[in-house]
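notes to self, project folder thing:

trying the whole complex as one job this time. last attempt i did each chain seperately and stitching them together was a nightmare. two parts in total, labels are on each line so i dont mix them up again. if this works i'll redo the older ones the same way
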Amino acid sequence: MTISSRAAEQTPITRPDDDRAQEGGAARRRSFRRPSGYAWILPALVFSVGLLYYSVGYTGYISTLIWNGTAPDVTHVGLANYAKAFSDPVFWLTLQHTAISFVVTFSISTVLGFVFAALLHSRPWFGGLYKVALFVPVVLAPAIMAPVFRQIFANDGQFNWLLTHVGLGSLAQPWLAQSGTALAVILAITIWGGTGVSFILYFAAMGQLDPELLEAAELDGAGNIRRLASIIWPNVRGTTLALATLSAIGALKTFDIPYLVTVGGPNFATEFLGTLIYRTSIPLGAVGYGAALSILLLVIALAMAIVLNAGRNKRGARTDA
Amino acid sequence: MFGIRSGRRSAKSLAAALIVAGLAAGALAGCSSSGGSNSTDSATKGSITWWGWTPEIGVGKQYIAAFNKVYPNIKVTYKQVATASYDAAIRPALASSVGPDVFNIAPGGGIGSIAAYQGSALDLTPVVTKALGSGWKSKVAAIGPAGLTTSSGKLAALAVGSTFAGSVWINPDMFSKYGLTPPKTFGDWVKVCSAFASHGVTCFEQGAGDPGFNMDLLHSIADSIKPGVWSKAAAGTVKWTDPTLVQAMTVFKSMFSNGIIQKGAVGVQQYPDVNNDFLAGKTAMVMMGTWYMQYSTLAGATAAVSAAGVANAKPFPMVSIPFPDVTGAGNPAPLFGDADYGLAVNTKSKHPKAAETFVTWLGTNTAAQQVVANSLNDISALSSVSPKWSDVTLVDPSTQQSTLQSLIGRASKITEPRLGDLSTALGQAMGVATASVAAGNATPVQALTTLQSSAKG
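result (full assembly):
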């Protein structure tokens, strides 16, 4: 409710005179018919409807076409692009990669972020330096780091050099050139770039914990591991859920790292929904099919948001009870 | 009272909001308004924009400077878009009313594909006929209009020049350093690469993660076995499972297992990885086309070596060698090519006449084509024009000029397309096939069978 409409509603109560009361009633009716506050949100409404919902709707429309994005002639194909997606093995492969990416990056980043946050709460020497070192990958643009990782994981790159020089030369291989290893490299880069966020959120969450709780546990004889597992971990569950949501969104939006490091290859081994949509819509010029994939991505994202929210609400309700 | 004042204020604010909303809606609607010629359009005056992935910005400026000596009142602004981003940039630009007046398109289904963008291009047949006469096709390299004319006969773009693939470029300094000679056969190639490997040097580097360059290599091998089979397969008149193509794919595979192509090639892109390594002197041989001629010039080589990340860039006199006879069939080393790019005039251009003047001048004027030829980026579109060597400063004329002349001479006779007959989807299927074989995930027969089914589908 806006301030003006709220004031108009209050008028008849504070001024009991009948005429005034009627005037107040008329004002209320006027403001109801012509709600002044809504006028202020109209520009935002136009922009959001125009730029977001209209775009979603238009993408939905395009998804029913065979169109290259520029040609004046289009062919209406109904839901054929969706049927094509469901029968496209690469589409299912991207979903598989997305699921793997979510599980692996969320699990490892969460564990690493939690452990680093706990370690740095123990106030080690050069703690500030460690914090910076952990967070720097978050602020480095993937476009800058992609050539570095391409070099590191090249056949003659530094990673193989390192393996060779520590006696593990038998493990050296062309990491980015093999379907079996390229995805692992992409996930490793994603974890490297995302652990800083997990760390900083856990570090902040741990700072909010009641010290008396930890002291009580210590007095009861709980060791470091026990306190981490039984006191700290349950109390930062909200952060973990937030990270799960962020990781899920991140997995669905994955584009920059696989595109810049492996271009989705070799042979779709690192293809994600984002890279597939781009490759389909831009280089292949199948804008209709690309739009159908975008709508499917939207549906998956909405479904995931609903599931995660439902899970959070259920836990919240259980906590309240 | 409060309510009345509130009502007045809301009326005012509603009006203000409607104005803002109207402006916003107008801005959004403006995005979809159509362009088109205006009443002040002139063939000799105006300001036009040109978008392309090639030529290099410096070469583009050379063209424009030469153009402005003849047409000083047409201002041309050239924007070079990175090759990988060109399609992403040009597609929405052409769909809008504020796209470039002139834009690059290319034959086939790759970057700037004629199939994708010909709908936004004016038919240039009338202007080229006016410039060169009704027999204009006899005055330009046939490969130009062949790849830039639509199935309905529209000349969607005018070729500025052509490029040809099928050649191997070498760093002679590296061969001299290790006392090696360029390979002429498959056996030579294996020995040379073994020798380079013994010195810890990469012999022949291939960006096998890049479908286009895998196709070039496979095309060369197929042509060395039986010329023309590849083109027939691309045109759909021969199956991809033809014995010649199976043999070619088998040789392609063996180049990975025999140490000719470097390990991990499938994870490498021809640009920028292979290009940078060659220019930085890290690899002795690469498979590149005639577009590499520009790095034979002192200025071109210095800039390219510097751009590859080499401090105090020292150019080397790279030369091209014929593709080795990898099967012993004895056929001449093949070249195949297309118009490097053609200049198209946007149907929504507000200055189409000025744009046509620029495009026609660059594609048909002798002086303009001389600039194109001398830049060595392309082989000129006009058959009568060739580089004026006295105006070209090579790194080492004694070793480079004769090989360049030979390459240009061979290329000028070629009619076999490089990408012209390949659709985008077929190109992708080809990429999957070559990468599968290179990575050892499929046998040549399996990969070509899958490719054939993709081509049919």
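what i see at first glance: Chain A has two domains: 1-47, 83-320.
need to look closer tmrw
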